[in-house]
Structures are given as C-alpha cells and as structure tokens.
Design brief:
four-stranded antiparallel sheet, Immunoglobulin-like, alpha+beta, 9 strands, three-stranded antiparallel sheet, 27% helix, 29% strand, 2 domains, Lipoprotein
C-alpha cells in the first residue's frame, strides 16, 4: 500500500513535535511546551500542504494535452481530411509553420474520363518565402483511408509538383471515386506545412 498524505506528514515531523503528538495520545504530559509543539506542527503541515500542491500542479501540466496546431500536428495525428464542398481540409489547422505555403490541386471535381485519361492527378507545393532547399513529405490519403507517402525537396520559391499515383508507391490505374487528401509536412520532424486535396466522382 502507498503512504497516505497524513502518514507522510507524520513521518516527516521533527522528533519533538512527534513526541508531543504521541504523548498527548497516551495521556502523558509532553516533554515540550504544548503551544510551541502545536505551532511547529502547524508549520510542518503548512509546508507539506504547499509541497503537495506543487506536486499536483506538476502532474496536471504533465497530463494536459496541447491543442492541435500546425506547429504540433504530425502525420496521422490530426485526422485531416479534404472537404470538397469547403475546398479545405477539416479540421482546419491554424498557427502555421514558418513560411508562406501555397498548394495546387484540381479545383473542379474530376469526372471519370478526366482522371482516366492518363490515370494521374497533379498536386503541388511551394513556399513564397523560400530561399533554400527544403525537404518535404507529401502524403496522399485515398477515399478508403489508404495513405501513400513520398519524399521530395522544395527549391527556393519554385513549385514542386508531383503526379498521383505515378510519383507515389501506389497502384497504377484509374482513381476511385471520392475525396483525396494531400498532406504536406517537413521531412525532418513531420511538422504540418499545408493540407489540400481533390475530388473524383
């Protein structure tokens, strides 16, 4: 069994105060003046109460979960999905990672003939504030929640465009009907950069 807070406090009492408590419980006269023993006991209890309050606050902070933001969201953590009606990903991330990120994807709903012409769709990303090479991860989530990822690199402010499924480890062939989500993240730590998508159907 774990020690109770009261037992922990008693075990930590000074010998004089503890003697007063024990002697008082036995009906004997304590060896120290009662007022000073009570004052010392109260001081010890107050000190332990403060320590327990600090410990409880520390555990509360440790167990608290941060809100989802672009700076903390990782692949698979946010459950992001593209909504063709809103032409945006839901839930919408906020507080984006440093950079002016722009995405590209088909904005019109693709018909069967359009997506079957060459069996692929082009998606892209760029950083209008980009000045160096920046490795990124592109992840496409299909209507049946199957995900395919590929690593690529942005260069300066130039667009980096990829063809799905050709540039991804995905089966070739006509795209299934439904919404496709495109999640762009930093390769180093998978920090979310942007989310986009397209719809076939």
């Amino acid at each position: 069994m774990g020690d109770s807070p009261a037992r922990r406090v008693l075990l930590s009492l000074p010998a004089a105060a503890l003697g007063a408590v024990v002697a008082g419980g036995c009906g004997d006269v304590p060896d120290v003046p009662v007022p000073s023993a009570v004052q010392e006991l109260e001081a010890v209890f107050e000190e332990k109460r403060a320590e327990l309050a600090v410990e409880a606050d520390r555990f509360t902070r440790r167990d608290s979960r941060p809100e989802l933001s672009a700076g903390t969201a990782h692949l698979g953590a946010g459950g992001l999905r593209f909504d063709p009606e809103a032409v945006a990903c839901e839930p919408r991330p906020y507080g984006g990672a440093p950079g002016a990120w722009e995405t590209s994807a088909p904005r019109e709903r693709l018909s069967g003939s359009e997506s079957e012409a060459d069996g692929s769709v082009e998606v892209g990303l760029r950083n209008r504030d980009g000045a160096t090479r920046f490795p990124v991860n592109a992840r496409v989530i299909t209507p049946d929640d199957t995900a395919y990822s590929v690593e690529t690199t942005l260069t300066g402010t130039a667009w980096r465009r990829l063809s799905f499924p050709d540039d991804f480890p995905a089966p070739r062939g006509p795209l299934h009907e439904g919404s496709y989500t495109v999640v762009w993240s930093a390769s180093e730590d998978l920090t979310l950069l942007a989310c986009d998508g397209f719809h076939r159907g």
